[in-house]
Design a protein that fits this description.
heterodimer; A: 765 residues; alpha+beta; Maltose phosphorylase, domain 3; Immunoglobulin-like; 3 domains; six-stranded antiparallel beta sheet; five-stranded antiparallel beta sheet; 41% helix; B: mainly alpha
């Protein structure tokens, strides 16, 4: 039996059968569109890429169909920069989804098997436990919500496998790890990447520690080469992503956390749907039997290390609910500050828990004497695993079949134009052939406020008295416009500007974020082309890295071990070659930098100002934390019962990331009591709060630039307020509110109450 | 070697068979038939129905998300989405026709420049997701 499990063809056949069972009941609806709100946007990204290739014969670089035009390759949620895109091209986006699920499920199981086998001697144990991770509940959640890009996470075992192999001196580890990482990142794995970085660091440390001391340096060198290749092979995706996210950083606040019981429910409860979405319990379903196996495996000394790692991932998954919060520490790091869902670390906990579970399967039958015990124990344990896998398959099928399905009727406009759009129905705009200005992404998208969804023409001259423009041809990456200019003037295109746009005539400029060309006098065709340097450079680095990997692999097949004596220079040259290519591009880089978007409040006002508004009330209050409140202004209540607050303050020193702003709206004491209402009527409220951690709608309080006046504008609806006079109080402290408020050390001109300063008052009549 | 072939060939056959079956079933799964297209009268009616709700939506969303323009607009579109679906289901129309009717209606009073008045919320509100949704 063990020999059979070791045969790749046999394993893949078993995994293919399981993956077939996974998708079987969903195949009849393969051609339908998932109507879930997130699926709409993610489907549109993929449809845009397919349209670019199929209809226009272009690479999917610019996506004009969403948000007024975005850089498709730099869009964190797009998934076309990886081989599975061929499936979308061949079969269409909807039909390709189940093929992708099938493919990644098989890869996830095979990767898990190979990775476990590096440390578990029993191949049948590894084979039996391998499906658990790739079938865990969050993949069902991902399918339900249309997060197809999350299936890239199934490649994590291959990345960890590559790391351990590389640490053991095997060149194959570098090849496998680098390619698996690049495919995952190219497949929209930008959410998985930070989690994988944590797992990769742990796996690398573990793999190095397993080496004898005299081989550790070499292991570190091999792992460094692997890290370099991971980044270089993924460069075609990473460089555009870095360009996008450095200009438009994702900001995440809040203190998400889950108590132990909730974490347990994530893993063992049945996954169910409610109100058109999946519920939290069961959303990482692996079942109680699997947890029992992990516990049984814990008795084996070999399971101690993976179990320690499992506990660490559980600690991370608990988020802020477990003190001290490891998740909070992780969030202090630059990229990790944007992590939003700590429970996703359960994915890694499940993966690492597979090892002790496999140890249990391998060891328990050997504990007793006699064949009957061995056979009996094997049968019982195998039934437990099969039952778990069966429950996982059933969960996937029932959740998948609970999706709301629809169809995109393709009846495109003759000419592309921007529409007001609707991101909740984004995929359907592809059927219309119109762009959706309604935009939702996981990061703030730089969009021009001059975009319109009601223009008479998409390309026009800013000053009609100066000239005329008429579209000649249009495709995502290239627009040709016939311009007749009586004098020099500006041609505007109803799409967002990006530094990757070039023009055959005149200068491409950003007109408040709108794509524009300053044209000289005369009549001519103007060709606008999108050729971003980050895509060209990234593509070149990726190609160079793949060529280097091939050469490295060929050398290894001839018995030349990298970084051994005599091969150091050659190996180092192959590792550095892709970066030399990047260096050439950087040296010749002429494209302007994609500038960060101006920091603005949620109401569109600037978040950094030279001085408080003249009509703001001066304060000068100083707090125990290094913050000075310069002034504040309260407007309202208006006819909609909204109040608007403008607070002007300065950060004068270092602050912890977890510092938050407390804003309390409190009905003044000593007024007539609030009248009691009947049971059905809601009692009027006498307290509102507008606490927040991100100020100016753009940055954490701790990141407010020193020496600048921060303008923090926010609003509150007080429609349910009881009549009377209210005061608005402002304080600072730990975002959880549990550690008390920072003391007011100098009130300035403000009234103080309970370590808060009054920033305004109003009356509700 | 003989052992290898005895197991590997059937296993490869199973693997290829599963892949082919899944691929063929996905490729040949019946394509959903879109609902009927709307008549010009229905398009006009649908556009009017959506337009008549917009003022109310604008007020309600301003109360739900005061001083937060993107959240207001996103809430607006959430309401538009539900109404569009309701209309499409009631009348048995394609959702694309409902969206087309709205877009044509908005374009009927076409703007000539970004500075023109914007009564139909056709201007862009840059995407600015809320920092948390707890």
């Amino acid at each position: 039996m063990g020999r059979l499990a070791e045969r790749t063809a046999v394993r893949l056949a078993i995994f293919a059968l399981i993956a077939t069972a996974l998708v079987w009941t969903l195949l009849p609806s393969a051609a339908w569109l998932n109507e879930f709100r997130d699926a709409q946007v993610l489907t549109l990204h993929e449809r845009a890429a397919v349209d670019s290739v199929r209809r226009f014969g272009e690479l999917p670089l610019w996506d004009p169909w969403y948000c007024g035009g975005i850089y498709g390759l730099g869009e964190p949620q797009s998934r076309f920069a990886s081989p599975p895109f061929l499936l979308s091209l061949l079969f269409g986006v909807e039909r390709a989804e189940l093929l992708i699920v099938f493919l990644f499920t098989v890869l996830g199981m095979e990767g898990t098997y190979r990775w476990i086998r590096l440390r578990v001697n029993d191949s049948t144990a590894a084979l039996r436990i391998a499906p658990i991770f790739a079938l865990s509940g969050h993949f069902a959640v991902a399918y339900f919500r249309g997060w197809t890009n999350f299936f890239g996470f199934a490649l994590v075992p291959f990345i960890l496998y590559g790391i351990t192999l590389a640490a053991r001196g095997r060149t194959a580890g570098i090849v496998v790890g680098a390619i698996a990482f690049a495919v995952m990142v190219g497949f929209g794995g930008t959410f998985a990447a930070p989690l994988v970085a944590v797992a990769a660091a742990i796996e690398a440390a573990r793999a190095v520690s397993e080496q004898p001391p005299n081989r550790r340096l070499r292991a570190i060198v091999m792992l460094s080469a692997l890290a370099s290749f991971m980044l270089a092979v993924a460069a075609v995706r990473l460089l555009p992503l870095a360009e996008t996210l450095s200009a438009q950083p994702r900001i995440m606040a809040g203190t998400p956390g889950h108590p132990p019981k909730k974490l347990l429910w994530f893993l063992v409860k049945s996954l169910a749907t409610k109100d058109g979405d999946v519920e939290d319990p069961g959303s990482f379903y692996v079942g109680a039997a699997f947890l029992a196996l992990v516990a049984l495996g814990g008795s084996d000394r070999k399971s101690i290390r993976p179990l320690v790692i499992v506990v660490m991932f559980l600690w991370l998954a608990a988020g802020y609910a477990r003190k001290p919060a490891l998740f909070a520490l992780l969030r202090e790091l630059p990229v990790f500050s944007a992590l939003r869902y700590p429970e996703r670390f359960l994915w890694l906990a499940i993966l690492y828990a597979c090892e002790p579970a496999a140890n249990a399967l391998a060891k328990l039958p050997r504990l007793g004497d006699g064949k009957r015990w061995r056979v009996g124990a094997n049968v019982v344990l195998t039934i437990a695993v099969v039952a778990t896998v069966g429950a996982q398959l059933q969960t996937f099928a029932s959740i998948g079949n609970a999706r709301e399905l629809g169809v995109v009727a393709v009846d495109r406009l003759k000419e592309f134009r921007q529409a007001r759009g609707n991101r909740w129905l984004a995929a359907h705009y592809d059927g219309l052939g119109a762009g959706s200005l309604s935009c939702w992404e996981t990061h703030p998208v730089t969009m021009s406020p001059k975009l319109r969804g009601d223009l008479a023409a998409e390309e026009y001259v800013a000053d009609p008295a100066v000239g005329k423009a008429k579209r000649v041809s249009w495709s995502p990456n290239q627009i040709v416009v016939h311009a007749s200019m009586a004098s020099a003037g500006r041609l505007l295109v109803n799409q967002n500007w990006h530094p990757g746009w070039r023009s055959s005539v005149g200068d491409v400029v950003s007109d408040e974020g709108l794509l524009a060309v300053d044209l000289p006098t005369g009549e001519r065709d103007v060709t606008l082309s999108f050729r971003p340097r980050s895509a060209l450079a990234g593509g070149a680095v990726t190609l160079a890295a793949l060529a280097s990997l091939v050469l490295l692999g060929m050398s290894a097949r001839r018995g030349r071990v990298p970084f051994r004596r005599g091969a150091v220079v050659r190996s180092a040259a192959l590792v550095l070659a892709p970066w030399a290519v990047l260096g050439v591009f950087v040296a010749r880089w002429t494209e302007p930098r994609y500038p960060p978007a101006p920091m603005k409040n949620a109401n569109g006002s600037p978040a950094l100002v030279a001085a408080p508004a003249p009509d703001a009330t001066k304060s000068g209050a100083q707090f125990e934390v290094p913050i000075v409140v310069d002034a504040s202004k309260l407007t309202g209540p208006d006819s909609l019962s909204n109040i608007t607050l403008d607070v002007y303050f300065r950060r004068t020193g270092a602050l912890p990331r977890t510092t938050g702003v407390f804003v309390h709206v409190v009905r003044r004491d000593g007024q007539e009591p609030i009248p009691e209402k009947s049971d059905k009527e809601e009692k009027p409220k006498d307290f509102f709060n507008a606490d927040h951690q991100v100020v100016g709608g753009s940055f954490y309080l701790s990141d407010a630039p020193l020496g600048y006046v921060v303008h923090d504008a926010f609003g509150l609806h007080i429609g349910k307020a009881a009549r009377g006079a209210y005061d608005v109080w402002l304080g600072f402290g730990h975002v959880s509110g549990r550690r008390g408020r920072a003391k007011v050390i100098e009130p300035g001109r403000s009234d103080v109450n309970d370590n808060r300063v009054r920033i305004g008052s109003f009356v509700v009549r | 070697m003989a052992m290898d072939l005895r197991t590997s060939i059937p296993a490869a056959a199973v693997l290829i068979g599963c892949t082919l079956v899944v691929t063929v079933r996905a490729a040949l799964a019946p394509a959903p038939v879109p609902r009927r297209p709307a008549t010009p009268a229905e398009l006009a009616e649908v556009a009017a129905m959506i337009a008549s709700n917009e003022r109310t939506w604008t007020t309600e969303t301003a109360q739900n998300f005061p001083a937060d323009r993107w959240s207001q607009r996103d809430d607006f579109h959430g309401r538009e989405y539900r109404k569009a679906q309701e209309i499409a289901n009631e009348k048995g129309l394609r959702i694309e026709d409902v969206l087309r009717a709205v877009d044509d209606d908005i374009h009927r009073r076409a703007a000539r420049s970004p500075d023109d008045t914007d009564e139909r919320s056709a201007g862009a509100i840059p995407c600015k997701p809320r920092p948390f949704y707890d």
